Amino acid sequence: MMTLFRSGLFALACCGSVSALATESGVDFEALLRDAEAGRNWVAPDASHPLVAFLEHATLARDIGKVPFDRLTSFVDRHPEGRLEKSLREKAIEHFANANVPAKVLQLDAPGLDLASDCRVAAARLSLKQPVERTAMVALYERADRLTPDCAPAFDWLERQGGLSEALLLQRYERALVQRRFDVARTLRSKLARHRGAWVDRSYALHAEPATALLAAAQWPVDPALADAISAAVAQLARRQPSVAETHRQVLSRRYEFSADQQARMQRAIAIYAAADRLPQAGPWFDRMPAEWLDADAWAWRLRAAIGQRLYAPALRTLEGMPAELREDSHFSWLGGRLAEISGHTEVARTWFTQAAQEANFHGFLAADRIDAPYALCDATPATPPTGATEEINLQRALAWWSAGQRTRAFREFWYGLQQWSPPLRQHAGLLAAAANWHDAAVWALNGAETRNWYQARFPLAWPEATRQQARANGLHPSWVRGLIRAESTWNPNARSGAGAVGLMQVMPATARGVARRHGIEQPSLTNPDDSIALGSAYLAELTEKFDGQIVLATAAYNAGPGA
Predict the structure, then answer these.
(1) For residue range 88-133, what is the model confidence (pLDDT) as tens digits?
(2) In whole angstroms, what is the distance from residue 173 CA to residue 361 CA?
(3) pTM for the full model?
(4) Does residue 416 fall inside a structural domain?
(5) What are residue 507's phi and psi, to 5 degrees?
(6) Contacts of residue 320, Cβ cutoff 8 Å, sequence gap at least 6
(7) Domain containing 480 — which CATH number?
(8) Domain total for the chain?
(9) Is 504 part of any domain?
(10) Does any domain span residue 356?
(11) Could you tell me if residue 17 is inside a domain?
């Protein structure tokens, strides 16, 4: 592989405090880790190396109850922001909670723990009769989005103290219904029933079984408190049966005084899913709504509904009525240009296309081609990474594992870091990953508006010779093959999809066998980059021939898989 990065960027990745990350001393840390996990003795050649922590972690995690407690706390307190430390801290809290050693549970307490660990800490405080703040318990209760047995002591205490007010129970119950966490909602029904009576069962039914409950709702005594649940049920039913949902909305609107927000929720869902089902009523249903009721999705579906009915002049008027931030998006600007062209307004079309061509994306490029304008491609990849904490421990460990050739372990640390890092640190990490030819990590880290035009880092030319040779051998343009790889696997040779596709070009094993047989590719490995590029390019050429050279159709069929 090679990279097209400026030499300054690569040099920074190999100097100063990062040198330990990019240079290995020949130590097989994977073998040492297997020894540590099996309980065998290990010796680290350099105690300061980022990967030594994995050996310590494996040793400590084998039997938490038998290691010296001060050694355990020393490890987890050394880098509390690290993934290893957090996972071991939570495992240790679970161990000592189960062993009924509350004092040690409290010594392990730290910010940022998962719900179960925080509940175990609260239970330990109660066990030791330490002061407990009701506000802290309420905050814990509000966090609980699942049934966690470890939280029972804390929540039982809160209830005994009168902290489970009707308002708090109601808030938690309604949130569970909205999140469709019916297991949680069911546990709260009995507690709320004495406060809210029939409302509890009826609101539950409206969320869990909207079709049945809405029929019954027409016969229930009018309860204004049910209006919100009814509107939610109508919106939910609209996903499957928009016309039936509209009938319920009309019937129940004669009985209930729905608020503007509740009417907007119902009418918006009905119109959107009618448009998705290509029902002719979709257009009128959008037209009856005030513009302020339409969100971004509703505007897009309103436009689709008009175009789907070939109502091009109304579609253009819809586009012109969109909020500016939507209308100026290249996707919609491109559509505005096409609609104006179809309507015979050449100069208006050019104005729309000029707007769209300012963006460096698919619709921007289409618009630029339409008016023979240059693409808005100006690379802004920094010559050196922005200032960031190079000493961030998860980044150190990720780059060290990558340097050691352990992609899976490396990405586990990198992905954990991505969830914690500030935007500047994400950018810093992405550039360091790109400089180390860790292309998929760079793409994930630099996936944001501020880094959109960092093209060298986000669109690497990896495996340039293999992609060029296989593309030419199969009558394809190399950029097409590379673009497909970037879209399919983000240049990860070990990528596996949920459907079973494997490798850089995400070829299904059965498809690979057929392509290999037809093209004489002997014993290919889908995780071998050269083999994946050969198989994927050959398969793409077959699809191109099948669809008479139509690149868009061939690409869509490649993505859809065999039988498309």
Answers:
(1) 999 999 999 999 999 999 999 999 999 999 999 999 999 999 999 9
(2) 44
(3) 0.82
(4) no
(5) -95, 135
(6) 327, 336
(7) 1.10.530.10
(8) 1
(9) yes
(10) no
(11) no
